[in-house]
Protein: Staphostatin A
Amino acid sequence: TLYNKNNSSIVIEIFIPNDNKILLTIMNTEALGTSPRMTFIKHKS
Structure:
């Protein structure tokens, strides 16, 4: 879990369920509503 040094209300969670997928969740603890969520999937070349 990462915190923004200048804005402690922004929290970034990084979750790696396996080698091919990384889930990023960006949360603003002061704002209500949905948090943007990004999923990175590594493609096998």
Remarks:
- The CA atoms of residues 18 and 43 lie 13 Å apart.
- The first strand starts at residue 2 and ends at 3.
